């Protein structure tokens, strides 16, 4: 019998079912919205790490004051760059911008700390021509110097040499400015077993100035420890680590590269030596960068 009480119960059950259906709809919408937000965040993250993170150039400018620097070098301007891995994520369209950023600062010295080429992709004749033109058009008053990285073949060395870079392979050079009081620049070749004795050969010469202001170039930063066991150095510039390439802010990199496991950040003080590691410009292994944007160093050296 369809009594008032049964009709009321039916109505209540209908209302309850409608409320549950509405709750399920709202929950489904929230889940879908959550998935959409996650997808959007993932898409934005991938867009950043594959585009902005790999192509937005940063100039790290720093003034360095050191009383050991000869007075004739007061105001010395130095550019340090590395790890183009050309044709990885660093392409022809980025060469012109990099050249302008370097030349507009009118550096006295340009240091390249290795990995010009990309081991995963051979250069075409056009690629090689574009890269050669870029290297040729870099200007430095006192000279251009380079060390080689593990991806650099004889082709890379030849290109650098043709562009008037002096490639230092366990060798050194004395750099003069105005007077007879030079600074010493050494290049440690870390592609195989470094020859520390050859690199430090200057200090074994009869008339060597044992207190000379010294700069060292090397590709793999972890080799600095062995070099410093033999001789104190004022400044060292390296590459290779890409500053971690993928990392979460100031936390250690998700994956450290071999020979950049101890030193991978941009700057370290090791006793009285300042080690600067260029974050590089291209990428290796994976075409991503996060919290390690492509960068170059621009230093102004002063005596006081």
- Helix segment tally: 6
Which stretches of 5+ consecutive residues score pLDDT under 50?
none
**What spatial order of strands do you see in the largest sheet?**
1-12-2-3-4-5
CATH superfamily of the largest domain: Metallo-dependent phosphatases
CATH architecture of the largest domain: 4-Layer Sandwich
Net shape: elongated
Percentage of residues in DSSP E strands: 15-25%
Average residue-wise pLDDT: 90
Describe the SSE topology.
Blueprint lengths: L3 H52 L2 E8 L10 E6 L10 H12 L5 E4 L12 H12 L6 E4 L7 H9 L2 E3 L3 E5 L7 E6 L7 H4 L14 E5 L5 H7 L4 E4 L28 E4 L2 E5 L17 E8 L2
Parallel strand pairs: 1-12, 2-3, 3-4, 4-5, 7-8, 8-9, 9-11
Antiparallel strand pairs: 2-12, 6-7, 10-11
Helix pairs in contact: 2-3
Overview of the structural elements:
The chain has 2 domains: 55 residues; 245 residues, Purple Acid Phosphatase, chain A, domain 2 (4-Layer Sandwich). A 6-stranded mixed beta sheet has the order 1-12-2-3-4-5. 32% of the residues lie in helices and 20% in strands. The radius of gyration is 28 Å and the shape is elongated. Helix 2 runs parallel beside helix 3. The protein contains 6 helices and 12 strands. By secondary structure, it is α/β, with parallel strands linked by helices.
In short:
By secondary structure, this protein is α/β, with parallel strands linked by helices.
Question: Which structural traits does this protein have?
Answer:
304 residues; alpha/beta; 2 domains; 12 strands
């Amino acid at each position: 019998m369809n009594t008032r009480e049964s009709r009321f119960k039916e109505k209540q059950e209908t209302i309850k079912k409608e409320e549950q259906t509405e709750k399920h709809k709202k929950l489904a919408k929230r889940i879908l919205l959550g998935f959409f937000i996650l997808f959007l965040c993932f898409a934005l993250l991938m867009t950043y790490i594959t585009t902005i993170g790999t192509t937005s150039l940063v100039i790290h400018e720093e003034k360095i004051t050191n009383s050991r620097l000869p007075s004739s070098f007061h105001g010395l301007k130095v550019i340090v760059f590395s790890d183009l891995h050309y044709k990885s994520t660093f392409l022809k369209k980025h060469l012109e911008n990099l050249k302008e950023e370097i030349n507009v600062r009118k550096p006295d010295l340009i240091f390249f700390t290795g990995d010009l080429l990309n081991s995963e992709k051979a250069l075409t004749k056009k690629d090689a021509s574009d890269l050669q033109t870029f290297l040729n058009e870099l200007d430095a008053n006192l000279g251009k110097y380079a060390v080689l990285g593990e991806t650099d073949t004889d082709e890379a060395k030849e290109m650098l040499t043709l562009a008037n870079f002096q490639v230092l392979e366990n060798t050194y050079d004395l750099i003069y400015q105005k007077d007879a009081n030079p600074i010493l620049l050494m290049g440690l070749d870390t592609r195989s077993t470094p020859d520390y004795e050859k690199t430090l050969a200057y200090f074994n010469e009869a008339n060597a100035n044992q207190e000379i202001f010294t700069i060292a170039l090397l590709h793999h930063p972890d080799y600095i420890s062995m070099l410093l066991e033999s001789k104190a150095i004022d400044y060292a510039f390296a590459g290779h680590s890409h500053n971690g390439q993928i990392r979460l802010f100031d936390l250690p990199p998700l994956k450290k590269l071999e020979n950049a496991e101890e030193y991978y950040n941009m700057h370290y003080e090791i006793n009285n030596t300042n080690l600067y590691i260029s974050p590089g410009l291209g990428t290796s292994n994976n075409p991503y960068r996060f919290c390690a944007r492509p960068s170059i160093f621009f230093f102004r050296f002063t005596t006081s």
